[in-house]
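Q: I have 273 residues here and want to know how they pack in 3D. Can you give me a structure?
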Amino acid sequence: MGTFIRFPEKISFRKAKEKVEYYCVWGNVFNQYRASDPKEVEIILAKNDIDINKIADYCRDYKKPMPRISDMLSATNWIKSGRGIIQISNSTTGQKAKELSESGILSTSTYQNEFKESIKAKNAAVDDDFNSYNHILNALTSGFSTIEAYLNMKAEKWNFENPKDTLIDNSNIKVNIETKIMNWIPKMCNGKSIQTDTHEWSCFKELKNLRDNHKIHPKQSTIAITYKEIAKIIDKYRYGIGLLLANMHICFDQKVPNLIIDTIFYPDIEVIK
């Protein structure tokens, strides 16, 4: 059968419990389950007749949605059919952003849809061994596009509220993703910033260099990579893209979307020989 990579069937109980705690502090949970510190979560759930150990055991199957406590996000894609007009308004300006007068699809969150595509490609890298490397490069490309789309969305709101101090990124003034993270976020978040002495930042830099050198500006005509190396890249995705995105939401005092939290708590890839 040869060597291949795969996700384990379950994550550890400890990791599943940490996932429940993360949801209650930073995720989309109902207000009665909200905690300000992970140490409070077990007590708060117990007051609501919920055993954190039972939820954690259930969440060891990381593909299952968080039960009971989670306030699931609304859909980000809408399909229209038949007559009539449907439109989306910009939540910042109140102006009409997009509309459909005939059958089609409307998207209410560019960055969340881009992240879903990134996750699909990341999972395909495990399911399709023969094309693993191409899939993971596509996952990284969509992952960094997600980060850019999120920051651009926040900059649009900032520019509307601060017309004399705008953040610009266009064809005439190009701003790279690191500059947006390092300079834009503190400006928009009253000094709160992404820390650069962390594991997630190290993973972000490594994954970005990989994407730039092999997808955006290819420097080699051939590639040789082991499944062990591919597994490490996929594992680092959880932090360099998943956890970094989560920390950005926290900087902006936003709840972290479920899919991002689920990504952070994916298991380590197994290399089977």
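Q: Anything worth noting?
A: Residues 73-108 form one domain. The chain is about 50% helix and 10% strand.
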